[in-house]
Write a structure and sequence with these properties.
single chain; mainly alpha; 6 helices; 61% helix; 0% strand
Length: 147
């Protein structure tokens, strides 16, 4: 692994961790809240409210499958940014780097493209945060509010 590939891997891991912990799409919010509730990091429910025995709460299929697939000892890795970054790095190396050791040249860039894509996205976010306010990328929401 070259220095450029290592830097790209570090930026890709940072991008995945940033999206997991700061992303706003509904499916990410639901997944994060599921892991936080299962890890005990979510605020407890108000115990003063009486439970209605006639009301049944059914959980979605994906949460019941995750209960079965993800062991309890692994849940903490999804709620801790430090732990999560190590797991993301391991899986990116296992999925994107290790196969390139056994493939010939035309197929190697295909496996590295997700890492380079995530690294480019993270680098653009970091650069956008570093430039002066007049040179920043204007978001669509900001343009609507200015009108």
């Amino acid at each position: 692994m070259t220095v450029v590939e290592l830097l790209a891997l570090a930026l890709a891991v940072s991008a995945v961790v940033d999206v997991w912990f700061n992303g706003e799409p509904p499916f990410l919010l639901e997944l994060r809240s599921y892991f936080e509730a299962r890890d005990g990091a979510a605020p407890p429910l108000d115990d003063d409210l009486p439970l209605d025995p006639d009301v049944t709460v059914t959980r979605p299929l994906w949460s019941r499958l995750l209960d079965w697939i993800v062991p309890n000892w692994m849940v903490g890795a999804f709620t801790c940014p430090y732990c999560f970054s190590h797991h993301v790095a391991f899986w990116l190396v296992a999925i994107c780097y290790l196969p390139t050791l056994f493939l010939r040249h035309p197929w190697q860039p295909l496996f590295w493209s997700p890492i380079y894509l995530l690294a480019a996205i993270r680098l653009s976010v970091l650069l956008d945060a570093a430039v002066p306010a007049g040179a920043k990328h204007r978001r669509y929401k900001d343009l609507i509010q200015d009108d």
